[in-house]
């Protein structure tokens, strides 16, 4: 029976460490500040932004939400982002996705100052993952590393298989595992015989958005299985991994809900603190 990697417990430990780190920064008169730009009134986005704001305040971070109407022009949205780029009190800028259809998301994300790009989606940061040293890893990817580290799961030398190659999760996660010296295979919809690859994984990360994609037969005995997927089936949230069968065979597994999800917002806070440290502290201060 696999060890259950409880994301809520791990996120609580991350938050406890962060609250201490933020208190120490404030003693040095560094007050990290996160700005979230929210466009439109999508209920799910508004609820994610509220939880980000709540956690920031709970930890002693300054957080501001800039709300813009759904019909805001691209140039007005860009102007708002540029104001945050220019504001020296702001360390981290996040544009809540998805943006309305009339807005070119890539162009907007390129408008965020790369040194304040807390989501790690700016092409300059993406280029830095390719050489293994971004300012920050995207929050979900960073959360996966936090889970592996806090579970004492070795990464270097392990065979890691990542199912999914999206810009938000799959691709950066494969880059992170490679940067930590795993041997990485990245799978996607065109991968032939997916199970042949997943069965070789010591670390299996599944971020496909397909309920039940991975079953016990697709997993190596003793593997660490990280299920990123969030799917709604018959009114319940489930991952991409068939938890009930895989839990019998894996060595460790993240549940859905309560696995990777709770880490994602905590890592946003950790990324904000990291950007504040980089911007405001000299080597001597550190
Ligand atoms: P995308 O839809 O952008 O990407 C899905 C990826 O999975 C694509 O690369 C796709 O391949 C691949 N894929 C889909 N089906 C299969 C399949 N049958 N076999 C192999 N590969 C497949 O999704 P995201 O990356 O944004 O999100 C993935 C999942 O993670 C979703 O369920 C999402 O809700 C969840 N999520 C969870 C978060 C959390 O905090 N827990 C945060 C972000 C996302 P191809 O490129 O060929 O199309």
Automatic annotation (TrEMBL):
| Key word Oxidoreductase present | yes
**What residues does the Tetrahydrofolate dehydrogenase/cyclohydrolase NAD(P)-binding domain cover?**
138-277
The record's keywords, sorted A to Z, are: Amino-acid biosynthesis, Histidine biosynthesis, Hydrolase, Methionine biosynthesis, Multifunctional enzyme, NADP, One-carbon metabolism, Oxidoreductase, Purine biosynthesis
Q: Which reaction does it catalyse?
A: (6R)-5,10-methenyltetrahydrofolate + H2O = (6R)-10-formyltetrahydrofolate + H(+); (6R)-5,10-methylene-5,6,7,8-tetrahydrofolate + NADP(+) = (6R)-5,10-methenyltetrahydrofolate + NADPH
Binding annotation for NADP(+): 164-166, 230
Q: What binding partners and quaternary form does the record give? A: Homodimer.
Family to which this protein belongs: Belongs to the tetrahydrofolate dehydrogenase/cyclohydrolase family.
Know the name of this protein?
Bifunctional protein FolD
- Supply the source organism for this entry: Alicyclobacillus fastidiosus
